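New to this. Explain these tokens.
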Amino acid sequence: MSEPKHNTNNSPFGKSSGFNVLGIGKQEAIKYFFGGNATLAVVLIVLIVAFLSYHAWNFLPQYQKSLTLYRLSGQEFTDYASDQLTAQKELSSLASQVPAYELKHRLGALYDLEAVHSDFKNKAQKKLIAERKDLQRAKSNLDKVSSKQPAEQTEMLAANKRLQEATQKLKIRAQEILSEISYSDLNNKSLITDSKYLEDIRSSVVANIITAKTSNFIKTTRKTEAEKTAEIMALPHMQELAKARDMLIAPQKPFNNYLKKYRLIASDSKGQAETHSTAAGRKEAQLIKAKLARSEQDRKMDRIKAERILTATPNYQKLNEPLYNSLDEHLEVQNQLTDQTGEALASMPMASDFQGVKARARVTKIKDLGEALFPLVEAKRQRMETWSHTQPVSIGQSVSGFFMGTQWVSNSSWQDFYGVLPLLAGSFLVALVAILLAVPFAVGGAIYVNRLSTSFEQRWIKPIIEFIGAIPSIVMAFLGVVVVGALIQEHSQNPLLSWIPSFPVEQDKTILTAGILLALMSIPTVFTLAEDALNNVPKAYKEAALALGSTDLQTVIKVIIPSCASGIIAAVLLGFGRIIGETMVVLLVMGGRIAIPESISDPAHSMTGIMAQEIGEVEQGSLHWSALFMVGLLLFVIALTLNYIAQTTLRRLSKHS
């Protein structure tokens, strides 16, 4: 009996058909096609880096040139003085905010009564368009009948009856609508409300809509508010605050006059510097045009125009001479500024004198910023004294200006600055908030569903969580704008929540709002990957732990989780990557303020948000264009770095496990 023939072809693709092109058969072609993913990924990464680098490579030289013109023109000199005034103005601005917050706290709902009344009225009027038009037509008809000479009694009675019916109809409809409007419908959730005023507000709005006159309720409210405001403002600490604020404001005018005069000189110098920087190119273009002219007359005119373009370097020493000579004048206004600011800070009342949380916070901030003001003023003065327009701007300064700069100012008539630090801080802070919120729910949910839940719970919980990942990010952004931000703003006003850092929240578009939405968006990613890691733990581990007397919870905590820790960490890192690259939510919900945030209740901007917002409005090849691609390149490098750290961490954990 002959032995069965064994298939010597171990290839999963079957027997070769003999097809061959350039030495590559069908089996090899299929293998290379499906096995080239890693190579393709490397090629794509190289192409992306090359694309970003191609558009960003010229940024640093361009920015160096821009900063050089900024220094040559003397704008840098005047901005040192401007920084002094800006820092001092922040103190006066905070001092002006304190009375409003203190009054709002002490007056309570009375302080916001008119604002609430106005909001109720606007909401009601949007639903009373037809009734109000009927009333207006009835009034116009009555005026028309009354204007007739002599007026017919029958028409007058009919017109009056029509007016009464329209008025009554509007009143009834307005009462119905307002009965459905409550404080929870307010657009501004930070307004203070009190239930005892609700019915009076509704009745006042009805009367105001019908008569278009200020109601007695509002008149009484204004009178009561004015009387109580006068009493509060007469308190000793409020009087001290008012005097301190006046002292802070007083030296700003002479300092500002100094700045206006010399900024005008610097601006004129900048114009000459920019004209000179393009003169050679414009002259060359004009000469080329002359060569291509069709007639001798046109050729002569183009040559004359070319000769009129001056390429001589401006005399920057002469242009900046007034700035060098202004140091004595600056010292005078600076001393006036610091002296009166010192007196104002010395007379500032204590934060403990104020009852309002926000008022106390601003008084404390005035004290802190006041202490930092004088060293800042002195440092800026020293820079002005040592400033020289001839000192070259190095490439290192443009690098530090980009990576450590705190300003992102584009399309400015004064000077463009591209500092990525505020965008970097905003991106990482919102990602940190999101991942801290997402991890407990996602990892905890994965552990519960995979190890502790019943089969019925698994069938429902897992699909619902994974369905969140299918929601478009723009829908999430709309949800944040309309619902989440308003809820946070409303409930953060509750005194019981005042212990939470950065509460109460003053705006609806903040880092916290964006962080909550990003956490929700990243939960499916972390949940799914964490559950996959849990599934990879051998069943023998669980059975051995249970056999030794461990409970299900003890088995999960002490055996299962340590065994798949590397997979859970990978899930968290991938979720973080999902968050850091999100665009629409941070663009629409984060607030869009380009400044380093101080807390999670502040609005901010992100790297992805600034790119999405500005890339469509930028001239290709410009400095601004290159700056945005530098941000994109930085974001890509951060993503690759995080991925490298994740892979390295996973390898080390795998070895230890």
Q: What stands out?
A: The two ends are 53 Å apart (CA to CA).
